[in-house]
Amino acid sequence: MLTYRKCVAILLKRNDKFFVGERADIPNAWQLPQGGVDEGETYLEAAQRELYEETGIKSIRLLGQTSHSYKYDFSDESQKRAVLKYGSLKYIGQEQVFFVFDFIGTESEINLETTQREFSRWKWESIPEIIKKIVSFKRQAYIGAIEELRNAKII
After folding, report:
1. Domain boundaries, the chain
2. What is the per-residue pLDDT for 114?
3. 66 Cβ contact partners less than 8 Å away, ≥ 6 residues apart
4. Within 10 Å of residue 17's Cβ, how many Cβ atoms?
5. What does the angle CA 32 – CA 36 – CA 42 come to, to the nearest 5 degrees?
6. Which residues pair with residue 27 across a beta bridge?
7. Which residues contact 1 (CB under 8 A, 6 or more apart)?
8. Among 16, 96, 117, 140, which residue is least crowded by beta carbons within 10 Å?
9. What is the pLDDT of residue 1?
10. Alpha-carbon distance 138 to 23, whole Å?
11. What is the C-alpha to C-alpha distance for residues 87 and 80, in angstroms, rounded to an integer?
């Protein structure tokens, strides 16, 4: 039986906008930095590691996180890509804990030229723009997490 992959998503804040990246493998597909939680790693450690691996960013201050995880199922297209890439489908979707960090560095720190390049370009966006740009199968998870973080006055 397929399960959900334990995962983190990062809302990196600068002023009143947040970092979004265009996926290197799918043009015009924008998302927050995100990734899986490794064995023996805390969710916070995973969020810090994933942010650094995908963006080169280390200059951050934790503002908060969701109190629970938000699930979404992979789209049919995502499942097909996973089978082509890995030979089989390991997970039905992802179960994400969302973290909010304040970016306290300079933009010169941002480096997308990583060993396993995740993003082709990036920008700062408002929450409504992020919700509009995110792929439909992730949208409800993003909306739920953002609503929780707003209600907790974290964002």
Report:
1. 3-151
2. 86
3. 97, 98, 99, 145, 148, 149
4. 16
5. 105
6. none
7. none
8. 16
9. 80
10. 14
11. 10
Q: Is 87 left (phi over 0), alpha (psi -120 to 50) or beta?
A: left
Which residues partner with 22 through β-bridges?
30, 121
User: For residue 38, what are its two tokens?
Assistant: 């490794």
Q: How many of the other CB atoms lie within 10 Å of CB of 91?
A: 17
Q: Over the range 115-125, which residues count as b (16 or more CB within 10 Å of their CB) and which as e?
A: eeebbeebebb
Q: Name the token pair of 9.
A: 């998503």
- Residue 147 contacts residue 98 (beta carbons within 8 Å): no
Q: pTM for the full model?
A: 0.94
Three-state SS for 151? Answer: helix
CATH topology of domain 3-151: Nucleoside Triphosphate Pyrophosphohydrolase (3.90.79)
Give the sign of the dihedral formed by CA 85, CA 77, CA 94, CA 135.
Answer: positive
Kindly list the averaged pLDDT for each block of 10 residues, start to end, along the chain of length 155.
93 97 94 97 98 97 98 90 79 96 97 92 97 95 98 97
Structure tokens at 70: 């938000």
Q: Which residues face 62 on adjacent strands?
A: 101
Q: Does residue 126 contact residue 104 with C-beta atoms inside 8 Å?
A: no
Q: Residue with structure tokens 């707003």?
A: 150
* Residue whose structure tokens are 């909010």: 100
